[in-house]
């Protein structure tokens, strides 16, 4: 006689049917059977939940909303990753150099730097990169491609982050705030340079005279003092200057 069991709903299922369901579950885990098919593109999945998430590609449904900025996402884990932009959380830490990342794949790619592995090679100049997206950005040097366009003034850029920085010229956005004095800046590197006013740090040191500077551009201008050849000449009186701005001030004396 066939052995029977009761399911949660109270109906009777024979043991052979239960065994068959267990077998199907195992087959799904192994990826050998995908019984859930998308009725739009016919792609198949081993689990119903994966099909539900997939269909949002077709419907455009994004049920997971960020409560900070309002941006929406089709998957809960994508929202979790996004919120790290606001919180600054970087849970994935490199055990070699200590650098942290917001996403596990960023850490995986970063570790190629330590391994010295650079599998992506430019077929034009031969330079190699640890990441495919770095190679893509690099190749724009050769092609001159600038795929990122400002929708306000039409100016184009080779990198998306350059476009983001540029648009702050139009919006006036200054997202980088000094935690000491409260002054705000449009670019992160400007904030870093500014904070040296408070800390007194001067990381740029002239190896000729020993003078130190907090700003790289000031250091570059200073080094021209040590160059023997004078670059800037007044076309009115012939007087020479080491710096362009000194020549400009001098020429005011002729007006």
TrEMBL record:
Gene Ontology terms: cellular component: nucleus
InterPro entries on file: Znf_C2H2-type, Znf_C2H2_sf, Znf_C2H2_type
Gene3D superfamilies recorded: Classic Zinc Finger
Q: What's the superkingdom here? A: Eukaryota
Instruction: Provide the protein's localization.
Output: Nucleus
Q: One GO molecular-function annotation for this sequence? A: zinc ion binding
Task: Tell me which residues make up the C2H2-type domain.
Answer: 36-63, 64-91, 92-119, 120-147, 148-175, 176-203, 204-231, 232-255
Q: Name one Pfam family in it.
A: zf-C2H2_4
Print the keywords alphabetically. Answer: DNA-binding, Metal-binding, Nucleus, Repeat, Zinc, Zinc-finger
The protein's name: Zinc finger protein 239-like isoform X3
Its organism's taxonomic lineage begins at:
Eukaryota, Metazoa, Spiralia, Lophotrochozoa, Mollusca
Per the record, the gene is LOC118768416
């Amino acid at each position: 006689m066939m052995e029977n069991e009761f399911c949660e709903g109270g109906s009777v299922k024979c043991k052979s049917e239960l065994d068959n369901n267990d077998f199907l579950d195992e087959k799904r885990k192994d990826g050998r059977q995908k019984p859930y098919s998308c009725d739009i593109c016919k792609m198949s999945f081993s689990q119903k939940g994966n099909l539900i998430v997939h269909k949002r590609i077709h419907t455009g449904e994004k049920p997971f909303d960020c409560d900070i900025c309002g941006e929406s996402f089709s998957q809960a884990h994508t929202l979790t990753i996004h919120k790290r932009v606001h919180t600054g959380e970087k849970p994935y830490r490199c055990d070699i150099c200590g650098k942290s990342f917001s996403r596990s794949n960023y850490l995986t790619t970063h570790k190629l730097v330590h391994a010295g592995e650079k599998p992506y090679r430019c077929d034009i100049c031969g330079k190699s990169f640890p990441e495919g997206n770095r190679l893509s950005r690099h190749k724009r040097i050769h092609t001159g491609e600038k795929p990122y366009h400002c929708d306000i003034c039409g100016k184009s850029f080779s990198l998306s982050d350059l476009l983001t920085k540029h648009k702050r010229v139009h919006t006036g956005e200054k997202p980088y705030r000094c935690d000491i004095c409260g002054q705000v800046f449009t670019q992160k590197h400007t904030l870093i340079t500014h904070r040296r006013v408070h800390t007194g740090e001067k990381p740029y040191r002239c190896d000729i005279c020993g003078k130190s500077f907090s700003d790289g551009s000031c250091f570059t201008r200073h080094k021209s003092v040590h160059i023997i050849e004078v670059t800037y000449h007044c076309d009115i009186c012939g007087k020479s200057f080491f710096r362009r701005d000194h020549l400009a001030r001098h020429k005011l004396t002729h007006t």
